From TrEMBL:
<feature type="domain" description="PA">
    <location>
        <begin position="168"/>
        <end position="251"/>
    </location>
</feature>
<keyword id="KW-0482">Metalloprotease</keyword>
<feature type="domain" description="Peptidase M28">
    <location>
        <begin position="349"/>
        <end position="537"/>
    </location>
</feature>
<dbReference type="GO" id="GO:0008237">
    <property type="term" value="F:metallopeptidase activity"/>
</dbReference>
<dbReference type="InterPro" id="IPR039373">
    <property type="entry name" value="Peptidase_M28B"/>
</dbReference>
<keyword id="KW-0645">Protease</keyword>
<keyword id="KW-0479">Metal-binding</keyword>
<dbReference type="Pfam" id="PF04389">
    <property type="entry name" value="Peptidase_M28"/>
</dbReference>
<keyword id="KW-0378">Hydrolase</keyword>
<keyword id="KW-1133">Transmembrane helix</keyword>
<dbReference type="GO" id="GO:0016020">
    <property type="term" value="C:membrane"/>
</dbReference>
<protein>
    <recommendedName>
        <fullName>Glutamate carboxypeptidase 2</fullName>
    </recommendedName>
</protein>
<keyword id="KW-0121">Carboxypeptidase</keyword>
<keyword id="KW-0862">Zinc</keyword>
<dbReference type="InterPro" id="IPR003137">
    <property type="entry name" value="PA_domain"/>
</dbReference>
<dbReference type="InterPro" id="IPR046450">
    <property type="entry name" value="PA_dom_sf"/>
</dbReference>
<keyword id="KW-0812">Transmembrane</keyword>
Length: 561
């Protein structure tokens, strides 16, 4: 996931959310981890490193695409939303993986406010009193789907922290749900007040779409992934035949605009701590305050077919060949009912620590979240699998007498999807220790959604990053480095600033000011099956990193050992 930050310290004018461009989503999940590992090593060892052929070739020989693949498969057998038994099992898996490498590891739990669906329904009619069509609100499996059975365990599609309630009102089409889209509707005399706003993903995050809808007076909101951004071109088909989102695909998300546990804003959810009541936490302006649901492109298309009113402008339309979108309001009437359970639940961060030899009280921290809306193969367990693989290599090097200069802390965060919750609570609890001891925080979340490195850093790490990617071989072309392909792909290559939304680096950067990085290979911040049922092992194996071969890139870490 990625979400807007509350207060960016480092990015006064954040780069805009880029739409996905069609046809270039060529994921290579583990390549980024190569770069991350490289960065990590450089940061740990402080460049320039002294080559040591023995350890170097050992590190090289340890590269195995199969290890990361088998961790990924094990972690993604079942959907594992934060706070559930299934996600607790993934914590146990990661803990066991670290401890079986003889790396001291432990779990730190927190009790935090999470949110689950209890009841949802949505129906559409062509006007008051007309027959209504009820939507199933389910994502289709396919005939040979090895995860069809596990799909039954997936949490029904919902928006975390949505208000509960029932709304029956005319629909209005609100494009990307940005402030300017609602301003445009107003300028066309289309009143959103009391109505159900139908908006599409592609420019801003769901929590901002719903916030804007509410600000415009909407009584409820629906958000869907339009085939323009998520469906490829009409002939390309969808998963499992191609990487694109199937028509029934739904993008789940959290509507909380803050970070961390909503009952402990800016302080840690430690045992027995003071808390805001759940009712008060749910009543703040960071919460959506209206009922909202994510829906599929297929359901949205049915709604659009019944919408009347003026034709929407060209840049509000769908992909070539799709029916004309109209603004409404009505005559389409939507009846949306949502009942959620906003409840305290236990989350678990897993830590593993390799003590440094020379500066044991200086920490280089590598983090990746573990919880997922569904199976979480790309988001985030490709990162988890590689983190374990990396720990395994370090462990083997340790057996050869190697020790890092500084202490390395591996973190497997929980409840990132709800609001960066696990990492934020930990940073809040350890703020002083981190501000004096942390050297850098290296984050991985969604690792790879395309062919080009999209690095984000705080400024202190720019140089290190550039030096690093000059040493890493491009997974798609062995005659060039990642740096070369990055330069080629960008007219004016520029490292983005962290701070425009986030992942688990947010608390490190924004609360404590620790130099941080976040690495993604891609072209934009999303990928077609993001937060849907289809982010599973098959998708990663087929479309993200076939053969898991790019992970062997990690071997280029030889250079720094
Ligand atoms: C809306 O749907 C709910 C739940 O299915 C139902 O109880 C209610 O009567 C419906 N409201 C209208 C106005 O149709
Ligand atoms: C909400 O969750 C709590 C804790 O898991 C559970 O005890 C309660 O029964 C749930 N409420 C509903 C309405 O599902
Ligand atoms: C691979 O990289 C080399 C060196 O930059 C370049 O000349 C060549 O065109 C690239 N090949 C492909 C297929 O992009
Ligand atoms: C690892 O690479 C080998 C050799 O390229 C390949 O045969 C194998 O299928 C790969 N493993 C996975 C899990 O993709």
């Amino acid at each position: 996931m990625s979400r807007p930050d509350a207060a960016s310290l480092l990015s006064p004018s954040p780069p805009p959310f880029k739409p996905h461009r069609r046809g270039r989503l060529l994921p290579s999940i583990l390549a980024v981890l190569a770069a991350a590992a490289a960065l990590f090593l450089l940061a740990v060892l402080r460049s320039p490193p002294t080559p040591s052929p023995n350890l170097g070739s050992l590190f090289l020989s340890l590269g195995s695409n199969n290890t990361a693949a088998s961790h990924l498969r094990a972690l993604t057998l079942h959907p594992h939303v934060a706070g559930t038994k299934a996600n607790s099992l993934t914590a146990a898996y990661v803990l066991h993986a670290f401890s079986s490498l003889s790396i001291p590891s432990h779990i730190t739990p927190y009790s935090v406010l999470l949110s689950y669906p209890v009841h949802r329904s949505l129906s559409l009619s062509a006007g008051p009193g007309r027959a209504a069509k009820s939507f199933s609100l389910t994502q289709d499996t396919y005939p040979s789907d090895p995860y069809a059975r596990a799909a039954a365990e997936v949490t029904p599609t919902f928006f975390a922290y949505s208000a509960s309630g029932s709304v029956s009102a005319e629909a209005v089409y609100a494009n990307y749900g940005r402030e300017e889209d609602f301003a445009y509707l107003s300028s066309r005399g289309v009143d959103v007040a009391g109505r159900v706003a139908l908006a599409r993903y592609g420019r801003i995050h769901c929590e901002d779409i719903v916030h804007n809808a509410r600000a415009a007076g909407a009584a409820a909101a629906l958000v869907y992934p339009d085939p323009l951004e998520y469906g490829g071109s009409a002939g390309e088909g969808s998963f499992p035949d191609s990487r694109w989102l199937p028509p029934s695909g739904v993008q789940v998300g959290s509507l909380f605009r803050g970070v961390g546990d909503p009952t402990t804003p800016m302080w840690a959810s430690s045992e027995g701590c003071e808390r805001v009541s759940v009712e008060d936490a749910m009543a703040t302006d960071d919460m959506p305050g209206i009922p909202a649901l994510p829906v599929s492109a297929r359901d949205a298309a049915e709604i659009q077919q019944v919408l009347g009113g003026a034709e929407a402008p060209a840049d509000w339309q769908g992909r070539d060949g799709s029916p004309v979108y109209r603004l409404g309001p009505g005559p389409a009437v939507l009846n949306l009912t949502y009942q959620g359970n906003d409840t305290m639940a236990t989350i678990e961060n897993v830590f593993a620590v390799i003590e440094g030899a020379e500066e044991p009280d200086r920490y280089v921290i590598l983090g990746n979240h573990r919880d997922a809306w569904t199976f979480g193969a790309a988001d985030p367990n490709s990162g988890t699998a590689a983190m374990i693989e990396l720990a395994q290599r370090f462990s083997m090097l340790q057996k050869q007498g190697w020790r890092p200069r500084r202490t390395i802390i591996f973190c497997s965060w929980d409840a990132e999807e709800y609001g960066l919750t696990g990492s934020t609570e930990w940073v809040e609890e350890n703020r002083e220790m981190l501000s004096t001891r942390a050297v850098a925080y290296l984050n991985i979340d969604v690792s790879v959604v395309g062919p080009v490195l999209l690095p984000s850093t705080t400024p202190q790490l720019d140089e290190l990053l550039l030096e690093t990617i000059k040493l890493v071989q491009d997974p798609d072309n062995s005659s060039q480095t990642v740096y070369d392909s990055w330069v080629k792909a960008n007219a004016s290559p520029k490292i983005q600033r962290l701070g425009n939304g986030g992942s688990d680096y947010a608390a490190f950067v924004q609360h404590v000011g620790i130099p941080s990085t976040n690495l993604i290979f891609g072209e934009g911040p999303g990928y077609p099956v993001y937060h849907s049922l289809y982010d599973d092992f098959v998708w990663v194996e087929k479309f993200a990193d076939p053969g898991f071969r790019r992970h062997v890139l990690l071997a280029s870490g030889e250079l720094w050992l």
